[in-house]
Amino acid sequence: MQTLDQILALIAQYGYLVILLGVMLESAGVPIPGETILIAAGVLVQQGHLDLGDAILFGILGAVVGDQIGYWVGREGGRPFVLRWGRYVLITPERLARAERFFSRHGGKAVFLARFVAGLRVFGALVAGMSRMHWRTFFFYNALGGALWATAAVLVGYFLGGSLDLVERWVGRASLVLFGLIAVAAAFYFAYRWVAGHRAQLTTYGQAALAYPPL
């Protein structure tokens, strides 16, 4: 895949600056393949050219800072400004309208969810700002989504870095897989928290079931 090869070459030459700026620009609303950049960074970590912790750190920083820029652009400029200048970065009225409908359905959680959907990632912060979402709500979901997304994408590249053919097959579909993995992990976490919080009640139910005479 030519794009992946080009990104690998850029990161190999300019290092963490490509990770920071690439992810930041995508998060701010410019259609740059930020996820592919993070996966490529993971590949270079596996090959010994980058440090894992630094690659993840710059990825998270780019995601969070870029979203902050997009949020304030959307908040201060509003819909007319985004549509006027967004056409130069492929933001059309139809795409923006779909993103707005998504945000109206999911509220603050949309900032988190949009991070894992390639078609919505460039719109997330802009729409949040346009809708004048409370900044603290935005920042919470922005930081949470950016940290999980960047970490997972770099780790995908790291673990698959031994085979570029395998990495190329992941590029483009990684968002859905990453979201699925995080959703499963979150489900297990909340299930554990629920069981831990209801341990006494569950123990009582279990004892009652064991004491119930068999038919």
Descriptive notes:
The chain is mostly helical. The protein has one domain (2-172). It has twelve helices and no strands. It has helices at residues 2-14, 16-28, 34-46, 52-86, 93-106, 109-114, 118-121, 124-130, 135-160, 164-170, 174-197, 199-211. Helix 2 (16-28) runs antiparallel to helix 3 (34-46), helix 3 packs across helix 9 (135-160) and helix 4 crosses helix 8. The model has no long low-confidence stretch (mean pLDDT 76).
Counted up, domains total 1
- The global form is flat
Distance between the termini: 65 Å
Helix/strand/pairing category: mainly alpha
Summarize the main sheet: none
Radius of gyration, taken over Cα atoms and rounded to an integer in Å = 21 Å
Mean pLDDT: 76
Low-confidence stretches: none
State the helicity in percent bands. Answer: over 70%
| DSSP summary, beta strand count | 0
Tell me the β content.
under 5%
Helix segment count?
Answer: 12
H and E order:
HHHHHHHHHHHH
Q: What keywords describe this structure?
A:
mainly alpha, 215 residues, single chain, flat, 81% helix
Secondary structure topology:
Blueprint: H1 2-14, H2 16-28, H3 34-46, H4 52-86, H5 93-106, H6 109-114, H7 118-121, H8 124-130, H9 135-160, H10 164-170, H11 174-197, H12 199-211
Helix pairs in contact: 1-3, 2-3, 2-4, 3-4, 3-9, 4-8, 4-9, 9-11
